[in-house]
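Morning run. Coffee first, then this:
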Amino acid sequence: MDAGQRFFLTRAVFLAVAWLAVFAVERARGAGKEIIFAGEKIAMTLPLGWYESELNADDVEAGFATKDSRSSIFFRSFDGGNGSMQDLMDLTIANFDADERFYLKKVDDYKTGQVGGIKDGQEKKWPAIYSQAEGVVRKDDFEYEMRFYLLVFDVGDRVYFVQASTTLPVQTGRENEIMEMIRSIIAKP
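And here it is:
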């Protein structure tokens, strides 16, 4: 290889590496966008490739799904004071079991935590409980194995229920996106 060919090859490799670095920075910069919903009371970062979905339940505050509809997340809200967060989680699990379209194989223990928030202009942490469940969803003549990510948090006058799901076997990238959305939730009373 003569000097001209080495110079050209070195420049081509340098430009390719520089282009990849710029692409990675731009992709990370646009890795998601903050969305605000529920009467401007909830904010969350929605990953690239997720879109607002049309859910058929009247009491859904907001719902989002991947373009292939294999993963989704939706939010419901309830008046505060209508039972504890654990009551709502227990009722959700019971509703899965009572609905012939679902069959739960496994429900993890509940974990307690917090959801970030704002109250009176100050940073606030709202109490939350979280669990995961795995089961089968029957739709038309098909059955889909799914993992559900269930979160309930209380902001005082409202209690929010969040359900995310993805098909099994779980793709690590999908699960990471769901967990990042859940971690990004900011709530106001």
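The two ends are 69 Å apart (CA to CA). Good start to the day.
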